[in-house]
Amino acid sequence: MSFTRSIRACGLGRAVKPFLSSDLATALLMPQLTLIMLCFTSFIPAIGLADSDERPDHERNDAQETVYTLSNDAIQNEVLAFRRYGNGHMEPAGRFTTGGTGTGSGLGNQGALALSHNEHYLFAVNAGSNDVSVFRVKRDGLVLVDRVAEEGSTPISITVNRNRVYVVNAGDDSIYGFRFDPSAGKLHPLPGSHWNLSGEGTAPAQISFGQEGDALVVTEKVTNKITTFSLSEDGTPANRHVIDSAGTTPFGFAFGKREQFFVSEAQGGAVGGATVSSYQLLEDGRVQVIDGEVAVGQTAACWLAITPNGRVAFTADTPANAISAFAFDSAGRLSLLQTRAAEENRPTDLAVSTDGTVLYTLSGGDHSIGIYRIRRGGALEKLESLDSLPAGVTGLVVR
Fold this sequence. Notes:
Distance between the termini: 39 Å
Radius of gyration: 19 Å
Number of helices: 4
């Protein structure tokens, strides 16, 4: 299968192609342009969020946590909140406008939303209006406290570490940073933080701080690169480092323990070709491969989430409608535990509950969130689904 099909399978599609130069589009995308679309095709607008007051009171008064996703609406972007109860049932808990706009279609990304470490603030990207929104998290919902423009174009993924916030931009292949004032919930542009990725037309998927907060990691789907930035004491990039990804089409990733991180690889959308690789983030901000291209046995592993104890990773294998579980040892070496069919159509993001007992899947095919109990060895037991999400939803975080 061509590289372009790999891009569409994981959800880039129309969101990326306009940002490529004509020369790069010819060289990189024309031979291959269908994978990143497979990972989130058929977002059809829905009328509203599922309503459910049918549960008995004794089953509805034990709220366990709140799940957030982003509507990415091109007219009025909103954070959608849901409460999950002890029996797995989930119901809407509010819609909160960001003040900005999305694109209305999938972004080919992971990390459109991020929580502060103390979970007092929620950050959201507005890919359509080129800015970032900040919400204060309250018991009864979210309160918009700030919205700030950035120097880049089309922010698609955001990451937070203490008083620093960074986004990666699909429009101009760059990163951009802010200083965050937690006492007021305000963002302030960080001079000197607007840096380019490895080149043009990189199609970034995700940005994340390393665990120590002194480096940034970005996956680039089209160029098959992993780009890192070592940071100065003031939070601005000091150096950029670029390595070839172990597998092609590196997409979502998550950190485990000891500055190890794990990356899903769509492998150009090759049938049954999806892989996961592990890496070590070094003290100087460089990266080295630990375990490369461990087979998933599915097609286009696009999103990846790790349990809080750092022992199991899950991938969303979007075109295959599957979820795969991996174990990894203390050295970061990977082994496939099992794969099961997703009961939702085309899972397009993942998140794990704060206690590590529940996996959430965001589905682009049927606009739903699936709720699964995590059993021993990464086995999944389906609990429930919440349907009727709007088109183009992106991002999934839990508190």
